[in-house]
Specification:
The structure is a single chain. The chain is mainly alpha-helical. The chain has five helices and two strands, in the order αααββαα. It has one domain. The protein has a two-stranded antiparallel sheet. It starts with a helix and ends with a helix.
């Protein structure tokens, strides 16, 4: 890769060669940034799920303490204070399946959004690279194939 960059930079037959090299480097950086955004959003989604799980565990502990106090309206209190929790059939307190599904759907939709935006951005960069290659090929007697060899 370095060899063809050096050739493109020094070749006097290739008009706008420095512009092409700079544009190519910017494009490579943009694609690397796109990859990083995708990885970061995936990890951020997992971190959000872990944080919410920890918060739900704290709520469950508080609910157990409240129930042990002997309050008769415990289920109403639980629905009012912690709407994501429920009393299971075995009398344990757990997170509602709907709350877990809502969190998972939120994280997945955000991840899809970032990856889709990144893919579109990558497509735009690719069009720019192809346009730049076509422009260089039109203005040069040097073929694109010889540029990469």
């Amino acid at each position: 890769m370095i060899g063809w960059l050096r050739t493109a930079w020094r070749n006097p037959k290739l008009p706008f060669r420095r512009h092409f090299v700079v544009f190519t480097l910017i494009s490579i950086f943009a694609l690397a940034q796109l990859t990083w955004w995708s990885i970061f959003q995936t990890k951020e989604g997992l971190r959000l799920i872990e944080t919410q799980e920890g918060y739900w565990q704290q709520q469950i502990v508080v609910a157990y303490v409240q129930r042990s106090s002997g309050d008769e309206g415990f289920k109403e209190w639980l629905d009012l204070i912690f709407p994501d929790l429920e009393v299971a059939s075995n009398n344990t307190i757990q997170v509602k399946a709907a709350a877990r599904d809502k969190l998972t759907n939120f994280v997945n939709s955000r991840t899809r959004m970032f990856i889709s935006e990144g893919a579109f951005f990558g497509f735009i960069v690719l069009i720019g690279v192809l346009y730049m290659l076509r422009t260089c090929a039109k203005r040069s007697t040097l073929s694109i194939v010889s540029l990469f060899s």
